[in-house]
Amino acid sequence: MAYVLGFIYADGNIIFTKRGTWFWSLQINDKEILEEIKKVINSEHIISKKKKYNNRKQSYRLQVGSKEMCEDLMHLGLTERKSKTILLPEIPKKYFPDFLRGYFDGDGGVWVGFKNKQRIHKIYAISTAFTSGSREFLVVLKEILFKYGVLGGSLVQKERGFDLKYSIKDSLILYKIMYNDKCSLFLKRKKERFESFIKMRS
Fold first, then answer.
1. Where are the alpha helices (DSSP H) in the chain?
2. 94-201 adopts what CATH topology?
3. Residues of CATH 3.10.28.10 domain(s) within the chain?
4. N or C: which end of the chain has fewer CB within 10 A?
5. In the 8-state DSSP scheme, what is residue 100?
6. What is the DSSP string of 110-131?
7. What is the pLDDT of residues 79-117, one digit of tens each?
8. Sign, CA torsion 119/124/125/126
9. Rg (CA), the chain
10. 2-83 belongs to CATH 3.30.420.40
């Protein structure tokens, strides 16, 4: 469930309608992970296919109507318009890797490729980023990751929020934190990107 909470913190939202109904939803491009999340929460809700616009990727949505779950999420700090106000919840240490991986799968990215392409000696590199509209969320996340040995990290302001970026050494530590032997829920394409870099370096 910590993974699901992390994913909701990144990519989810809470909806309260005028009719007094409560929903939380996730809308992403990866249908497979929504199917897995659905199993974890024992949901029978339908995953709907969203209408495509222009050349955008097909997206899917899981919407769960539950006032109790919404109230629990709000107690943890989520709001209807969370993007700029979200704060990192208190997560027990043993669940933090799952929460981190869930957040990363929802609002993180990993890049692998060559730097300094114009030079004779190119550098094969990896970089990792966590994104949020809330600067404070990323500041606290950086402080917690420091305790795990992730000692670098730079906070970069973008047009619509902030990125917390890590370079090669820290990215490899993040991989070890997020993808431990016990993890079962993860976006395959992101994990494989880390592993392609590790394989090339070995």
1. 2-11, 31-40, 67-75, 96-107, 135-147, 168-178, 188-201
2. Endonuclease I-creI (3.10.28)
3. 2-83, 94-201
4. C
5. H
6. EEEEEE-TTSSS-EEEEEEEEE
7. 776 677 788 888 999 999 999 999 999 999 999 998 876
8. positive
9. 18
10. no
47-49/60-65 β-pairing: antiparallel
- pTM for the full model? 0.91
Cβ density class 139-172: b for 16+ within 10 Å, e for less: eebbeebeebebeebeeeeeeebbbbbbebebbb
What is the Cα–Cα distance from 196 to 114, expressed in whole angstroms? 13
Alpha-carbon separation of residue 39 from 36, 43, 184, 202 (angstroms)? 5, 6, 12, 36
Amino acid at 41: I
Phi, psi of 110 (to 5 degrees): -135, 130
